[in-house]
Amino acid sequence: MILTVDVGNTRIKAAVFEGSTVLENFVFEKNELEKKIKIILEKFQNCSDLVVASVGNVEKQSFLTFENRLKIHFLTHEDVFPFINKYATPKTLGIDRMVLAAGATLQFPKQNRLVIDAGTCITYDFIDENDNYLGGAISPGLRLRYEALHNYTARLPLLTLETPESYIGNSTKEAIHSGVVNGFVYEIDGFIDEYRENFLNFIIILTGGDAEFLAKRLKNTIFANSNFLLESLNQTFQYKIDND
Ligand SMILES: Nc1ncnc2c1ncn2[C@@H]1O[C@H](COP(=O)(O)OP(=O)(O)OP(=O)(O)O)[C@@H](O)[C@H]1O
Ligand SMILES: CC(C)(CO)[C@@H](O)C(=O)NCCC(=O)O
Ligand SMILES: [K+]
């Protein structure tokens, strides 16, 4: 039994796996980390390994209190990954993006893959059919767009996510919702179209906190898998055991 932990920029997600089956999912804040992990390990006494991917400011030390209870694996660039990294700055590539790319490579062999993670940031990661990781894009996520408009202007209110009535926003609120939500959807459809023009065949994996909201609104039909990062973390760990 394995406990996977994804420390994102905003919150922490965790899942307990038995083989490739998820037994339970958890979401919590960074200040609850120790307390929550303790509760999870009490419930799942058979957990033998804890696998972490952290892009947030939570370091390995935060997990060391559990060292006498189970094995801790804090993934870094030094670990083995199932793709060839062609990023020009491989050491600055986010570990979450590496894990997503690993999951895509292992789950969908011998094909082009595009992973879109709609979280705090939107990340795009492309791995070609020869398992070369080529890179992608990073842009502000949905909530970040609402917050940025408010934080860097004098007059724009902080709004929470709402589906715009029209692309022609007829009030301040509607204009913001249109700009944020439609802009977000157009961006992603635009990127997908660009990839389609350059690659005949590829699979798209859509994940992250806004994946389900997004999937319904894209002109391209894509299914969301909100758990893809944690599933990939579990697979990356199995791959590491088999290949270390
Ligand atoms: N309780 C919540 N807290 C924060 N974001 C939420 C929440 N519920 C839904 N969301 C949506 O999820 C998005 C953030 O995604 P996610 O939770 O995957 O981010 P994260 O934890 O920072 O992870 P990552 O850094 O890997 O993107 C926000 O844009 C927001 O619209
Ligand atoms: C882009 C984020 C913030 C997404 O979580 C993360 O992957 C990260 O901090 N990346 C480092 C920069 C890069 O991936 O090139
Ligand atoms: K993300």
TrEMBL record:
Keyword ATP-binding: yes
Cofactor note: A monovalent cation. Ammonium or potassium.
InterPro entries: ATPase_NBD, Type_III_PanK
Residues annotated to bind K(+): 117
Reaction(s) catalysed (UniProt annotation): (R)-pantothenate + ATP = (R)-4'-phosphopantothenate + ADP + H(+)
EC number: 2.7.1.33
Pathway involvement of the protein, from the record: Cofactor biosynthesis; coenzyme A biosynthesis; CoA from (R)-pantothenate: step 1/5
Cofactor: K(+); NH4(+)
Gene Ontology MF, one: kinase activity
Transmembrane segments: none
Chain positions recorded as substrate binding sites: 87, 94-97, 172
Cross-referenced SUPFAM superfamilies: Actin-like ATPase domain
Top EC class for this record: transferase
Free-text function comment from the UniProt entry: Catalyzes the phosphorylation of pantothenate (Pan), the first step in CoA biosynthesis.
Quaternary context: Homodimer.
The protein, known as: Type III pantothenate kinase
Naturally occurring in which organism (per UniProt): Flavobacterium frigidimaris
